[in-house]
């Protein structure tokens, strides 16, 4: 019964399988969906070429007939070789500022460069000397080890041997003599290197002495300038006393309308003087904090500020008196102003004591000069000692050579001696062990080369730093010489010999008619990339060819809105009417050999992770890039691509990494 039931079940299963085979839909490879066709894209080769990055400014034209030249350094006018109305050429000297401190700084920077270069030469010679000495020691130690090993072998073989051992001893002695000759040559070479390094030390000490002498000159010039400033303060204080006494006299006599006008003018003049004196104190305090001026100059400026404030109070009191008429209280106040002015005179006269401070600075500089001279003498003495020590080593090497010669003679005479060969063998084995230890120690000396190389790199960095300071000092010296930027006529001369000038003060105005000037406004971000002398393409009217131009000046102080800065661009062209609107494309950065791709190839260019698709084997390969300069049509790739690769420049919007593509013929990138 069970077997029959099982047979029925099997039959049903087979029947269902047959029905399913006929009914179930079958498929083959032809029924599968076809792969999508590759995306047709345009590709461009990555090439090298020029690219320039620009920033756009807009503004209005103004006549460039007047070029106002302002000061850049807090200084004093020493020479004014021009006058109002004279013709000047571009580059001609207009005003010469006091450059004694700057010249001292140039001399000090030059001495620093020379001293740092001497230190670099010393480090290089020291490295060479150490390397040669290390190699020499290794060679000598290995020679000694080989000689000791040879001696040991001879001693071991010499126990019980006859004349043949003596012959071997003679050969060993002769080898020792040859090694002694080599040691003498090494010692003489070391003597020559010691002389070179000692001479380098003396040169460095001489450079230090010259730098200290330059410091003495700077301190002396500073003392002289401080004394002159103190005397000028006394003269101004005396003038204040005279003015206060005159004001007291006018208060007693009563005021006239013209006196009131004069008093108001005196108040305005005193206020301007007080503001200038305060600005000078702030500027000198900034420079003094960074070591730019002496303390005596700062104290003199503070005294001058106190005097200017006293003069302003006196002028206010005089104006009040002139307007209201003198009263008993005002007469007393006028008398008090006289007393204050006299007190200011006493303070100015007390300021003459700062000569003592300047004298102390001169004495300190002279002490440093004396120490530098002592260092030079010490270097010269050390040179003699080191050369003498190297000479002693040469003598010792010569003595060793004489001993080796004696050893050869002894070996020749001792061919018949064999009695103490066993003791000599033991001693020779000990010598081999000692010589091997000497080789290890000599080879360890080679490790000092890395430290000496680091010293040389540090000395090279110090030389570069000193040379940068020297270039900065030369640039400051150039700024003390105010020259005309254009051909023209001196229209207004505001600088006179003996005037104290601060940064931003107008010195000379020159008229010229050769060009116009575009006055534009720049944001703080744009201003950070703008520099005088940068080229610009200026368009005054739509559709016209751009005119050549260059940035003349970038304002240091923001406009009233606190966000924009004026930029003055000289425009080359004729008949440019003032008031016209214009735009300027200023080239702020460029690279003549940049690695370029079209901007159409960039994906997510505005994000922090831009990328491109590289065409490789019929696939689009997503490749991150780091961008540099960006032009209108091209962008610079700093990291991520190499020259000659093909990137998708047309049709990259719908691609993904690994997408199948059909590339069009490559087109080279041109322009920026």
Report on the architecture of this protein.
The protein has 672 residues and is an alpha+beta fold. The strands form four sheets. The chain has a six-stranded antiparallel beta barrel with strand order 2-11-14-13-12-15. A five-stranded mixed beta sheet has the order 16-17-21-1-20, with no helix packed on it. Helix 4 runs antiparallel to helix 5. It is flat. About 1% of the residues have low confidence.
Give the secondary structure arrangement, pairings included.
Elements: H1 2-23, E1 39-45, E2 47-63, E3 66-70, E4 75-79, E5 87-88, E6 93-97, H2 100-158, H3 163-253, H4 257-289, H5 295-324, H6 328-351, H7 354-413, H8 421-444, H9 448-479, E7 481-483, E8 488-493, E9 500-501, E10 506-511, E11 516-523, H10 524-527, E12 535-539, E13 547-554, E14 564-571, E15 581-598, E16 611-616, E17 619-624, E18 626-630, E19 634-639, E20 646-650, E21 659-663
Helix pairs in contact: 2-3, 2-8, 2-9, 3-5, 3-6, 3-7, 4-5, 5-6, 5-7
Oligomeric grouping of the chains: single chain
The biggest sheet, with number of strands, parallel, antiparallel or mixed sense and barrel status, is: 6 strands, antiparallel, barrel
> Span between N and C termini?
95 Å
Overall mean pLDDT: 80
- Overall radius of gyration: 45 Å
């Amino acid at each position: 019964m069970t077997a029959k039931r099982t047979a029925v079940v099997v039959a049903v299963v087979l029947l269902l399988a047959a029905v399913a085979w006929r009914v179930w839909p079958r498929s083959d490879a032809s029924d599968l969906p076809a792969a999508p066709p590759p995306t047709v894209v345009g590709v461009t080769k990555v090439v090298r070429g020029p690219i320039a990055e620009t920033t756009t400014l807009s503004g209005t034209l103004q006549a460039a007939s007047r070029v106002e030249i302002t000061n850049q350094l807090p200084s004093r006018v020493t020479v004014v070789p021009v006058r109002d109305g004279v013709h000047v050429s571009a580059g001609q000297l207009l005003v010469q500022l006091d450059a004694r401190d700057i010249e001292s700084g140039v001399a000090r920077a030059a001495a620093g460069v020379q001293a740092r270069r001497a230190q670099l030469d010393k480090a290089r010679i020291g490295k060479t000397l150490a390397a040669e000495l290390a190699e020499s020691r290794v060679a000598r130690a290995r020679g000694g080890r080989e000689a000791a090993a040879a001696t040991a072998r001879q001693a071991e073989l010499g126990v019980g041997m006859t004349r043949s051992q003596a012959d071997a001893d003679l050969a060993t002695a002769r080898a020792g003599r040859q090694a002694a000759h080599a040691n003498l040559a090494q010692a003489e070479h070391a003597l020559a290197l010691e002389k070179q390094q000692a001479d380098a030390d003396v040169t460095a000490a001489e450079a230090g002495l010259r730098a200290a002498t330059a410091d003495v000159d700077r301190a002396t010039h500073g003392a002289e300038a401080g004394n002159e400033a103190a005397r000028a303060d006394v003269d101004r204080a005396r003038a204040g006393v005279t003015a206060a006494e005159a004001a007291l006299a006018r208060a007693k006599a009563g005021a006239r309308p013209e006196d009131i006008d004069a008093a108001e003018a005196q108040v305005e003049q005193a206020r301007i003087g007080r503001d200038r004196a305060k600005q000078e104190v702030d500027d000198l305090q900034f420079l003094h904090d960074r070591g730019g001026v002496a303390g005596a100059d700062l104290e003199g400026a503070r005294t001058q500020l106190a005097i200017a404030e006293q003069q302003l109070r006196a002028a206010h009191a005089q104006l009040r008196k002139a307007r209201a008429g003198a009263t008993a209280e005002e007469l007393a106040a006028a008398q008090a102003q006289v007393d204050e002015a006299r007190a200011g005179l006493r303070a100015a006269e007390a300021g003459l004591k700062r000569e003592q401070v300047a004298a102390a600075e001169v004495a300190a500089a002279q002490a440093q000069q004396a120490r530098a001279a002592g260092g030079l003498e010490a270097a010269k003495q050390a040179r003699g000692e080191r050369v003498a020590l190297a000479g002693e080593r040469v003598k010792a090497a010569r003595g060793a050579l004489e001993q080796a010669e004696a050893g050869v003679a002894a070996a020749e005479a001792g061919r018949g001696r064999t009695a103490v060969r066993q003791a000599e063998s033991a001693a020779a084995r000990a010598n081999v062990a000692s010589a091997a230890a000497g080789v290890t120690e000599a080879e360890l000396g080679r490790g000092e080369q890395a430290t000496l190389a680091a010293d040389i790199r540090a000395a090279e960095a110090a030389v570069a730093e000193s040379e940068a300071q020297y270039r900065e000092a030369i640039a400051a010296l150039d700024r003390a010489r105010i020259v005309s930027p254009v051909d023209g006529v001196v229209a207004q001369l505001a600088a006179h010999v003996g005037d104290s000038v601060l940064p931003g003060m107008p010195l000379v105005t020159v008229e010229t008619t050769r060009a116009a000037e575009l006055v534009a406004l720049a944001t703080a971000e744009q201003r950070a990339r703008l520099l005088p002398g940068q080229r610009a393409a200026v368009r005054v009217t739509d559709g016209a060819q751009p005119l050549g131009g260059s940035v003349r000046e970038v304002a240091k102080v923001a406009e009233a809105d606190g966000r924009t800065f004026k930029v003055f661009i000289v425009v080359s062209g004729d008949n440019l009417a003032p008031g016209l609107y214009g735009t300027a494309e200023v080239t702020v950065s460029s690279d003549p050999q940049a690695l370029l791709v079209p901007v159409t190839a960039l994906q997510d260019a505005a994000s922090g992770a831009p990328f491109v698709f590289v065409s490789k084997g019929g696939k689009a390969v997503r490749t991150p890039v780091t961008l540099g300069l960006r032009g209108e049509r091209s962008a610079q790739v700093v990291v991520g691509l190499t020259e000659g690769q093909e990137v998708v420049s047309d049709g990259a919007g719908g691609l993904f990494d690994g997408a199948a593509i059909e590339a069009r013929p490559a087109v080279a990138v041109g322009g920026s």
